[in-house]
Amino acid sequence: MEQKLRWINGFTKRREEEFTGLSREIWNYAETGMEEVRSASILCRVLKENGFRVEKNLAGIQTAFVGSFGEGSPVIGFLGEFDALEGLSQKAGIAAKEPEKENGNGHGCGHNLLGCGSLAAAVAVKEYMEEHGLMGTVRYYGCPGEEEGCGKVHMAKAGCFLGLDAALTWHPMDFNGIEGRGSLADLCMSFHFTGKSAHASSCPHMGRSALDALELLNIASNFMREHIIPEARIHYAITDAGGTAPNVIPARASAAYEVRAPKREQAEELKDRLFRAARGAAMMTDTEVEMEDGNSYSDYIPNDCLNRIAWEQLQKVELPVYTEEERDLAARLRQTFSENARDVKDRKERWQEPIAGNLVSYEGTGGCLPVSTDVGDVSYLVPTVQLYTACCAAGTPGHSWQMVSQTGCSIGEKGMITAAKVLALTALHLFEKPELLQKAWEEHKRKVE
To answer: Which of 78, 298, 427, 449 shows the smallest number of beta carbons within 10 Å?
Structure first.
């Protein structure tokens, strides 16, 4: 066993209880996007206690921050998240739906684990650098509002990630592997139609229905689906139908829209088509339309050079050994999933066990995930790697009470410690062999340009 791995194993063994305790505290806070005041505060406190310089209020966001240690190059950054989801309150470590608080929040995506696992890696790297005289800078980025608020998007626009040589992150999942696929760019927008109210029976000719205009836009978007690339998506929700009285012509109507596509420029094209359709709907109904841009996510650009380094480290670490109690909990949770979740053909072999604790081989970059993430905006600026570790029963749906149950107990925490080890080893490899960063940047420039 090589020296770095022994050192990282020793660090995590000594301090595992500290970081799992921190994760449970943030799990209990369960603060939603851009409102993670207590979660951000405790993470900043731990950074300061461990010798990091902390800068708060990045990009004008109260809960965005960065902790830095060291000087000069290379500069390696760890990305941390800590926001929860609305309405997913759930007691930890049980296999029945039982909210801790009715309509409360819950960590249904495991960002309590994500933030603390990245922090553990950053602290481990800092201590190793001190002990072994490594030069360079390690940063931990506190990134709020991944689920709602696009924290990294605002931070990227504000230049918070400039100067980084590489960005390292991870996400709780139901397997162990390295992400080689891209993600969908996601552009959000709103349409607000304004017409004229009138009595729908006695003088309808004096009215102009904003709801008619909105329905025409929705019809246009549904017809548009036949004429877009298969990987693209269009979603909408009517946010204001203009009232509930059928005998009043609605003077207002609004909808929220999202368009997704494998590349940002493809999503921009879809947005432009929707904007033209909205203007057409307004013309047809003699109404007016206001079109408003919302949050947006760029597609994620995987970096094969960094991915292969992280894959090498993932193969070195000892994966978690689960107790009978943990395996039993995972098996009982799986019984609450739908058949589709329990029996996906392409994963059936590795899902024979309640927890898929094995490795999924890395086979290079290519393909596209049917999801979106603000990590994409970081990946446009700097070579980025994303790791997955098993933090839940095989087939656990994301954004579910079952996920919340596991992100607050030892099943999720074991995956978090595994991620911390791999992230730390990856960073140390880059600190010791900075020439690899040049190759990562050459690949990055080819893909971005």
So the answer is: 449
